[in-house]
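User: I'm putting together a teaching handout on how multi-component assemblies are represented. Below are the sequence lines for each component of a complex, exactly as they appear in our records. Could you produce the 3D structure of the whole assembly as structure tokens, so the students can see both representations side by side? Please keep the chain order the same as the input.
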Amino acid sequence: MIEVLHPGIYCSIQDQGRFGYAKMGIPQAGYMDTYAAKMANALLKNHERAALIEITFGQGKFKFTSDTYICITGGDFSPKINEKLIKMQSVYPIKKDSVLSFGKRVYGARVYLSVYGGIQTERIYSSRSYFKGITQQKLVKGDMLPILPIQENTENSFSRVRVSEKHFKTMYLPCIKGPEFSRLNKEQQRRLFTPFTVSDHNNRVGYRLKECLENNLPSILTSAVMPGTVQLTPSGKCIILLQDCQVTGGYPRILQLSDIAIARVSQKISGDKIQFRLEQHL
Amino acid sequence: MKFQLTYKLFGRSAILVEWPANISQEIIQDIISFERQVKEIDSILDTIIAYNSLLIRYQNPIIDKELTISQLKKIYAASSYLIKQDQFLWQIPVCYDVSFGIDLEEIANKKKCSVAEIIRLHTEGDYLVYFIGFQPGFLYLGGLHQTLHVSRKSNPRLRVDKGSVAIGGIQTGIYPQNSSGGWNIIGKSPLNFFDINASEPCFAKPGDRIKFVAVDIHTFYQIEREVANQKFRIKNSEL
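Assistant: Of course. Below is the structure of the complete assembly, with chains in the same order as your input.
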């Protein structure tokens, strides 16, 4: 088991998310930084869909009640085992009763903690991803998360990989035009590809950007949206929808972020700069 | 009846199919019927139905856009009109007290009529369930009286109560959970619109109809208690 000693500000269990249930209005959810989450699973030789803990701003404290292996990826918040600093993107054998905590922020916003075999909480609608109304919303103090016992012959590959610094540092977000892009006038289109600032309103549902675009577009008839859809609200503010976003929305969809851009955004914090960049359509 | 559809790439791995931009029963039936055929394709990840659109998400990025679209066009040309299945009219109790309907007075001012008139118009007819979206169990309803059309708030509220009955543009609906939202709130229903523990988490489905029935605040709390004790049965009748 993993015992949640301190739940931080927002820790949740995430896997790839839910697909096939959008018709009941059930959102996709799932890990925000796919790049980091899949890496954490790969280093432990877990299935890429194994559930892990997504830790916002590295705030949280966890105790392991049995021996296991762990790997930490994503944002670097100086992870520590029993107060001793450990490396990111490395597999560590963990002794029973060890405590994982975090320290100073080095970069990023979301940390991923994967354990041997993945977290074994209940699957609801083919996924363990937390989403309010489907599962509990977030981890709370005292939660006990089941994990698998390690096999006798489990070997630590001691694999360690270097992450691309660009993933955390770059402001560029590759995207393609959204369904309502062509309704923007020349000036709006020009402005859209200049830098924006991430506002304080940023979470798993979406990131609201600070600057305004002059907006005279009418609402659309409510239609599908997905993680990565950039909506233009009537106030002229852009919202980048992310993993916990609804399945439909009524604001014009002006851009659609690529998968890697979604992962990059999820490591941004308030005040960070971002810039959309058009990729070629197919 | 077949419609003139447009097909757009939406992201790397999805196609957005659009019908004429109208809210109509014929269009939604056509979308539901098309979606049933499309769902059978192996490489489909998920589909999202809305008033005049169908989003088809594929498991992998689309390599050949033209080929994918021509496959969909073939399926559409071959699909037949859906036969009506058992559809219900559901009676939904709503308390329009201004303590719940926090935007009622503002709407009445805007429309130069009384709050009572707003309530009368909202409970007068019944509404077609077009699709479920925005949140688990959020019903998109068509049939709102023209006088009640009010544009969405330019800045969405960060907190709207579960059960809130609201108007957004030409649409009306009920928030199934506490959430953020940009619609104008006119009342509150004590029912659960999404219950993960029920065999059918959403009692209503596309094609059903909804009738709002005004109840006073005393009745609201009584029904709320009955719902909590699983003693409340929603009145319905076959269409």
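A couple of points students might notice: The longest helix of chain A spans residues 34-43. Residues 2-164 of chain A form one domain.
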